[in-house]
Structures are given as structure tokens and as C-alpha cells.
Amino acid sequence: MNQNPQALRATVSRVGPGGTTMVTDCPPPWRSADDRPSLRPRPWHVLSPEDRSRVQDLSIDARQTVYAGALERALASCELANPDEQTGLSLWLGDTPVGFLMLSRGTLVPAWAPPGSAVVSALRIDARFQGHGLGQTALRVAEAWLAQHWPACTQLVLSVDESNTVARRACARAGFTPCQAPRPGRDGAVHDLSKHRGSVAPLDAG
Fold first, then answer.
1. What was the pLDDT predicted at 36?
2. With b meaning 16 or more CB within 10 Å and e meaning fewer, what string describes 20-53?
3. % helix / strand / coil in the chain, to the nearest 5?
4. Cβ of 62: how many Cβ atoms within 10 Å?
5. Which end of the chain is more exposed for a tag (fewer CB within 10 A), N or C?
6. Rounded alpha-carbon distances, angstroms, from residue 115 to 47, 63, 182, 196
């Protein structure tokens, strides 16, 4: 599925609140057979310099950056970490990067996480592609990647701020449930969520 990014955006983009360009009417190549957006994960460490630059251009608004953290910090962490304990996954629609997330395990897992967990963090979908379930799909991609590459990890865990209603909704739709009582955070309560890894189809990591 190789789409010309400029042609794709011209077909489906509109100007949203605050002048943000957002995707509205997705053409068929966005969707898989079950009508979910079809995302392909590509690990950060295998990307070419050109593709890395394109991932670095992913953009979210200031409020979302508070929730997800700065992309530069996440990428720097990927460069320094043991690749057996942390990896960054860029998320692609055809030849267009639309998102990013990090997976961590081992010594990088927080104390509250159940045994055998991998942590999802730094998840973001480019502002131009939000509003079409890609956040939920990204979590399913992370689950499938885990099954292939870190099969010893039987659970995915993540933390989400109570005020981040969009992320909480995406997590619920992807099957995440609370694994402990909410705890105080920087912006109200923080919800720690988990999901047992199910049986998933293999992914083309690109």
C-alpha cells in the first residue's frame, strides 16, 4: 500500500479548530478488511535517516504533548536504552508516518505493573490524522508486535491522565482495564491500565 502522502492529504484534509489540518474522509486504502485503519509498525532503529526525519516531523498540540511527552525525549531514550528492554515503533499508513509509541520491559517497568508486563508510552498520532481511531489501532499494533518480538511479556500496561478523555476512550476500546486504584498525578488522577496479550495475527514490521 504505497500512497503519495501529498495526494492523500489533499484528498482527505480540512482545516479544523485553531487552523489545525485534520483528516476527515479517509479513502479505502486506509482501512483493513474489518474496516479498521491499517497501520504498519517500523522500529526506530531500522529507519533510514530520511525516514527518521519524517518521523521527527510528527506534530501534536501542546496539551497532547503534556500527556505524551516530547517526541525528542522519547527518541533520545530509544537511542540510549538497551534495545532488548526498550524500542520505539513508528507507525505508518502506506509510506506516510502518522504516529509513534515506545515499548519498554524488564528494569524499565514501573513497580505497580503486573509481572510479565511491557509498558506503552509516548504514544502520539499526528494531528493531521487524528479522529479516525488510529490511537486505538496503535495499541492493537503494539500488542501484535509484542506477541512476535517479546512473547515473554503477557500484558501491556500504560498510564493515562484522568483529564485525557480521548486517550482513556481509545484504551477502553482497545480492551484496557484498571489494574489498580487511581493515584494522584500532575493533572489530577492517573489511571494505570493493563491488558492481557491475546492471540494476534503477525505484523509486517517493514
1. 56
2. eebbeebeeebeeeeeebbbbbbbbeebeeebee
3. 35, 30, 35
4. 6
5. N
6. 31, 32, 19, 11
Q: What is the pTM of this model?
A: 0.80
Enter the C-alpha cell of residue 143: 500488542
Average pLDDT over residues 131-136: 92
For residue 17, pLDDT over 60 is answered with no
pLDDT class for 156, splitting at 50, 70, 90?
very high
Q: Within 10 A of 12 (CB to CB), how many other CB atoms are there?
A: 17
Contact between 40 and 91 (Cβ < 8 Å): yes
Please tell me the predicted confidence (pLDDT) of residue 6: 41
CA contacts within 13 A on the Cβ side of 153 = 27
Tell how far CA 6 is from the center of its chain. 23
Q: Which residue has the cell 503486573?
A: 114
Instruction: State residue 88 phi and psi, 5-degree precision.
Output: -105, 135
Question: What is the pLDDT, as a whole number, of residue 25?
Answer: 43
* Predicted pLDDT at 37: 59
Q: Which residues contact 108 (CB under 8 A, 6 or more apart)?
A: 81, 85, 86, 119
